[in-house]
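Possible race condition, two jobs.
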Amino acid sequence: LPISKHLDRCLNLIRNGEAGPARSLSQRRCPLFWSAEDPEFSLPWSVAEAVATLRIRAEGVLAEVKKGLPPMRGFVDSYISGKEPWMLLDRSARQLESRCARLEFESDLLLKVIHSARSDYARAVHEVASAYADAFTASGGKTPPGMAHHCSIFRDTVTPLLERPEINGKIAFFMVDALRYEMAAELADGFGEECEVSLRPVWGALPGITQVGMAALLPGAEKGLSLERKQNDLSVILDGKALSTRNARIEHLRSITGPQAVVMKLGEAARLSPKRKKEVEAARLVVVTSQEIDRLGEEAADEEETRAYMDDVLGKIHRAIRSLARCGVTRFLVAADHGFQLVSTEEAALSMDPPGGDTVCLDPRVWIGKGGSGGEGFFRRSAREIGVGGDLEFAFPRGLAVFTTRGGAGLYFHGGISPQEHILPLLSVVMSG
């Protein structure tokens, strides 16, 4: 078929290092009749465009990283802002994986260029993560100037709105598990001119695991979190209370906010029942919790399911915001507990033994415990050095390295120190009128 011939030409351009001309060709071909009307033809072209874009951005980011190590605030700015922010590399990879998961037509040539693009992405992310760890170490782990700290979000953004109900109206606070910064940026782009939208970076609490990150979003977190061993497991303590489960965190939040708050899951907010509508209409604060992204990443039956449906969560958040807006909510704040990496670490050189010693918690991207050994592939920090209470010690892999764990790291992981995992979003949406 002529279409197949043109597609092969495009893929050969990519394979020969001419990603720019390949992307131009795919952008010209995609709108044509057969490519636009028949998914059998349109999706391979879409994948080809995504591969070319990913390779272009990977080359650009690698070139920028090689120029030298910027101060931490400069590193953050490079990742989130500018004409070509580095986060777009992660968005391109995520979009490629989403399209690949839906692909039915496959050829050896197409599979080869996809594999090559994934390798380019892994190499670029490894270099960025390594440089980020170096910048973090050089800065002493201090919050960069002008950045909000994770533990201050409720105090600095939610509480002031609640204190002036006559001006701010009804508020919704979304606590989204694993909403990466680039995903929040895509979410922000989806609102129309009738909304006032702002997005700013947050210095994530460490380690970037759900128990810690969700506790950091609670009222009172600015007073400090402590990490302790409780019955051979990790426990996150705030105001003397263990808040390692969703139920415990919600109970704590209710104890502070009182009857003015209603709490629901994302699916309930996206499709409000008559009972929930009445609760929203009577509330001052609506708290929406979401576990969809993290659950897809950690519990999906296979990698294709993770790749195909992770993007759909953004649409679900949009629907929830519109649904709540119809019930009188005018101000929305969307925050995350941690980010994530979505990349293969199959290379043996990226997997290493954890420090050992007295291990309390072991994830691919963080070891928590006491004692043990050191190593070139990771760096260690005390609780005080990462801003939490307790006497536990922490080890974080450098670059894309992972600790060897039961079951392996898989495609999706988090907890470490890289921009994808550690630079978090705070999205504000105000409905006009």
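Job #2 (started ~2 s after job #1):
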Amino acid sequence: KFYPRPWDDPSMNQLFREWINRYFSNPQVLILWFLLILGFTLVVFLGHMLAPVLAAIIIAYLLEGLVHLLEKRRMPRKAAVLIVFVFFMVSFLALLVILMPLVSRQVGQLLQQLPAMFAKGQSLLIQLPEKYPGYITEAQIRQITASLSNQITGLAQQILSFSLASVRGLIAAIIYLILVPLMVFFFLKDKRMIMEWVKGFLPDDRGLAREVWLEVNLQFANYVRGKIMEIIIVGVVTYIVFATMGLQFAMLLALLTGLSVLVPYIGVTVIFFPVAMIAFFQWGASADTLWVMLAYGIIQIFDGNLLAPLLLSRVVNLHPVAIIVAVLVFGGFWGIVGLLFAIPLATLCQAVIRVLTRNLQKEDARKAISSPAAEA
């Protein structure tokens, strides 16, 4: 019999009810979905206001590994928290005092040289119709030049607007610099008390949510700590290589290269262009430019084939296609933040799917054992 509306078909209704009963009848599954939806809702709608709290939670979560390591050596938790917090503050202040001035100075120098780079690039573009008259015309060159000029003008306006709003941004930065370390200390010191307080609001029957948390906790902690080591090693090696070769803005490019490992495959490709452009504008189409590009490629090969597998072995067992899809999807949703947290979010999705699959398999096994045929 033909039904003009699919929901009028009894077989379709039966199929839909069976699907609902299979995936949403278990109270623990409902609790897991509720906690996931609640967490994503808080981050999406209140993430801007709670940014210092979220940053403090992430930092405290990363430092908890060091605290736990000291506790395993029979050190009291208060003493371990104090030692780890002092180490964090010293490292943070060293980053602000030593690294940030160097990076900001090179950013300023790069902005000063942008007009000269644009003029040199424009002169090279003008020569293209003479060298390749059958492939490119002067009209196309003028269109490209006008587009680049508009882009640079827009960039200058953005920098000006940022400088005008720098007072408000400076006040916000000072507040963050005070609040975040303070909350990190309290999250470390009062972790158990805060966890018990949070558990008081959660249902007692949360076995699946606990399984997801245990799996994500193991994967995420190892991944983040491994990535931090990878960023430091890649950044230091890149700076040493670029500084030895005499490349301008070596510190800035090393920082960008180190941070590029946070976005697999895409980050490496994106950072290649500023490295190649700065080398080209410094030395032109010469052997030095080719050596810089070759050195960048060797660093990425070293990172992808030796360093990353060594630091992240057996962590985040995601297929490369799944990683690329996660980067594209979460980057499309939340921009730069989505790109940075694409792999942890994909790990969370993978853990949820694994736990739900195991739960369904257990339920199917119990039903098979308790069925009349099995009893017979």
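The CA atoms of residues 22 and 364 lie 10 Å apart.
Logs attached separately.
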